[in-house]
Write a structure and sequence with these properties.
This protein is of the alpha/beta class. Helices cover 28% and strands 15% of the residues. Helix 10 packs across helix 11. Pfam families: Sulfatase.
Length: 497
């Protein structure tokens, strides 16, 4: 590819964070958090305020990004590690074939861990993954020391250092303490430093695709001290607690540092919230650092920027924590696009209300790169929405999103259009219906409301249509069937293992 051709095709910077809530932007009027660089990207770009993760955990969310497919097609409807990633068409693969220099820095969370999935190169840090650390149960070649790039680098700076040194589990959503080493050694800084180095060593004759993939604000909640200090004395808003939520915790589940539900001691929860917000501000400042260097290389105005998260974090909403569940704190994600060189003609400062999902990333970025979109892709390009706010689309946008997550007794199926949400717990039969337009905190379950019955019946019928013919047997004779065994991986993907 010639330099002149490169000049006609923009670079693409995809920035993803792990486990960031949709509402953690100061631009949205959050009473505590500070995100100046993300605010500026949104102010001078386009923000999508109804972006969701259909299967809100790390592995299936990333499958949607890589393939552009809905969960029933990429086959991952729950969380399960060590299932091979054998997809023929991937976002980085298609961009590489079309002449882009492709690089990932940070989290991939694929299997085998060193799979390139179409990238020319991967500098890997998936965070602490138990299946890579359990020396008694996996082959040596899968040991974390062998597959990760960050830990060997860290040990070269601090001999003997390990990810466990702070005593925090990778899923300890309610236990926090500041990072004990110099800030430049933190995984967030490392991800940006390695991304900056890519700008130095990239092929200048090609446009680049860089996926800068942060592990934080996913736990461990370990922000550098300076960032923790920004929030340690803040007056945090209380988590939203629905009138349907648990009222008591007789088994003391909230005392478990890796709890997913329970009544957490107030001081511990406040520290966790301080650390969580601190990690987001830390990432924001490091994104600002990278954008300054991008400007120094003269590539800022020729780079399309997309920012999002793989899923959210409940952080005490309804006395729930982490992700997987269908509530807004878990499924609703931030989503910003920025086009400083006006390559795409976006309506800067626009806020789009149509519902989008992670599967829409692949067709959007391929279109931006003037690259053919494979027929395996089921997402839709978002650029017409970003130009017109949906007012002049050639065809109607999606009316709703079907989401789900297999998780034992907490397995759920759900439908939302961003304004209403219907939830079905497949193992217990419990149903919930929320009017998100009037009740964005999901405080009131309207299943018993006479005024809501027509809408409930409609959304239940939509879910039945989505689940018709599923291998789990969730639908029989046109009705939802309670208690059918959920699976994490659908049969067509299991057959490829």
């Amino acid at each position: 590819m010639t330099t002149s051709t490169h000049e006609k095709r923009p670079n693409i910077l995809l920035i993803t964070v792990d486990q960031m809530r949709y509402d953690c932007l100061s631009l949205l009027g959050h009473p505590v958090i500070e995100t100046p660089n993300l605010d500026e990207l949104a102010r001078t770009g386009v923000r999508f305020d109804h972006a969701y993760s259909a299967t809100p955990t790390c592995v299936p969310a990333r499958a949607a990004i890589f393939t552009g497919q809905k969960q029933t097609s990429h086959g991952r409807v729950g969380y399960q590690d060590r299932v091979p990633w054998n997809y023929d068409k991937t976002l980085p693969g298609e961009l590489a074939k079309s002449g882009y220099h492709t690089q990932c820095v940070g989290k991939m969370h694929v299997y085998p861990a060193r799979s390139l999935l179409g990238f020319h190169n991967v500098i890997l840090h998936d965070g602490y993954l138990h299946h890579n650390r359990n020396k008694h149960s996996v082959p040596m070649q899968e040991h974390f020391n062998e597959v990760d790039d960050y830990l060997p680098w860290l040990r070269a700076q601090v001999p003997g250092a390990d990810l466990l040194d702070l005593g925090l589990d990778c899923n300890a959503s309610t236990v926090a303490r500041p990072w004990a080493l110099p800030e430049h050694l933190h995984p967030t800084n490392w991800t940006v430093s390695q991304s900056i180095d890519f700008l130095r060593r990239r092929d200048p004759s090609k446009p680049f695709f860089l996926w800068m993939s942060f592990v934080r604000p996913h736990s461990p909640l370990d922000p550098p001290q300076a960032y923790f200090d920004l929030y340690k004395d803040a007056d945090f808003p209380d988590p939203v607690i629905g009138d349907w939520a648990m009222k008591e915790d007789p088994q003391g589940s909230g005392l478990n540092p890796v709890t997913s539900k329970g009544l957490v001691p107030k001081r511990r929860l406040r520290n966790a919230m301080a650390a969580y917000y601190a990690l987001i501000t830390h990432i924001d400042h490091q994104i600002g650092r990278f954008l300054q260097v991008l400007e120094e290389y003269g590539e800022r105005n020729n780079t399309i920027i997309m920012f999002t998260s793989d899923h959210g974090e409940l952080m005490g909403d309804h006395h729930l924590f982490r992700k997987t569940l269908p509530y807004e704190g878990s499924t609703h994600i931030p989503f910003i696009v920025n086009d400083p060189g006006d390559c795409l003609g976006l309506d800067k400062g626009n806020v789009v209300s149509e519902i989008i999902e992670l599967r829409d990333i692949m067709p959007s970025l391929l279109e931006a790169a003037s690259t053919e979109i494979p027929d395996t892709v089921e997402g839709n390009s978002i650029w017409d929405l970003a130009r017109t706010n949906g007012k002049a689309l050639e065809r109607p946008w999606r009316e709703y999103l079907h989401g789900e997550h297999a998780q034992g007794m907490d397995s759920t199926q759900w439908i939302t259009d961003g304004w209403e949400k219907y939830i079905w717990y497949s193992q217990t039969g419990e149903e919930q219906f929320f009017n998100l337009a009037e009740d964005p905190g999901e405080l009131h379950n309207l299943m018993d409301s006479p005024q809501a019955q027509e809408r409930i019946h409609y959304w239940r019928s939509v879910l039945i249509q989505e689940l018709e013919g599923r291998e789990e047997g969730y639908v029989q004779d046109g009705r939802l069937v309670v208690g059918r065994k959920p699976v994490n991986i659908l049969a067509h993907l299991r057959s490829n293992e």
